[in-house]
Structures are given as C-alpha cells and as structure tokens.
Amino acid sequence: MGWKIASALWYLFECSLSHQPGKSSGAQSRWLAARSGTDERFLRRAAHPLCFAVLSLLSGLGFGLWGLGFSAAWSALDELSKKHIEGRHCSVRDIRLNLYGTAAGAAVWLILRLFTRTKPRA
C-alpha cells in the first residue's frame, strides 16, 4: 500500500508543478536555478525526464504494469493539457522528454523486479 500512496502523492506534486501558470512556473525555475547555480534552460529540460522517471518507478512499484501504462499515457496528456493553462504551451520535445523519463523509470522497475523476486525452493 505504501508505494501506491507514494505514487499518488508524486503524481499530485507533479501536477501542481506542471499546471502552474507560465509566470509562476518561470519565477520558480529562475529562483531554483539561481540558488543551485544551474542554467535555467537546462533545469527546465532536465525536470521532465526526472519527474516522469520517478512517477513511472513509483507507479510501477505500486500498481505494476497498469501504473507503467498510466505513466506513459500521462507523459503525453500532461503536455497536451498545458494548451489550456495561461502562459504555457504544448511541446513535442517535452512529450519526448517525458517519455524518456517514463522509459527510464520503467527500466529501473523491471531491473528491481528481476532481482528481487523470491526464488522457488528446491
């Protein structure tokens, strides 16, 4: 049950970041970039695969293949929904970055699953 809750909380966190108006999102990115000494453009691009990798991994751990399917679908729907948010836009590049993150999270989930399965007793 813990992974399901973690997955749901991460999804809500990601939605709160993703669906802010453009001015709020930009101000938050500039603040974080200044504090971390990171280029803002790099930070904004890196956020996509990182957030979706975490979502995919947590969703896989909580819900199995259904969770991974949800993560893959949400990686596109999240971007498409930005057309309706003031100051935001939908980008094919961002959808790709989201899908890369989803694939990375799914790969980690698969590796964990392969190496943590209980082996049958002889």
Question: Could you explain the architecture of this structure?
Answer:
With 122 residues, the chain is mostly helical. It has one domain (2-116). Helices cover 80% and strands 0% of the residues. The protein has helices spanning 2-18, 22-36, 40-63, 65-81, 92-116. The longest helix has 25 residues, at 92-116. The radius of gyration is 16 Å and the shape is globular. It starts with a helix and ends in a 6-residue tail after the last helix.
Assign an overall shape. globular
Count of extended strands:
0
CA-to-CA gap between the ends?
31 Å
How many individual helices? 5
Order of helices and strands: HHHHH
The proportion of strand residues reads: under 5%
How many separate domains? Answer: 1
Low-pLDDT windows of residues: none
List keywords for this structure.
single chain; 122 residues; mainly alpha; 5 helices; globular
Summary?
This protein has one domain (2-116). 80% of the residues lie in helices and 0% in strands. It has helices spanning 2-18, 22-36, 40-63, 65-81, 92-116.
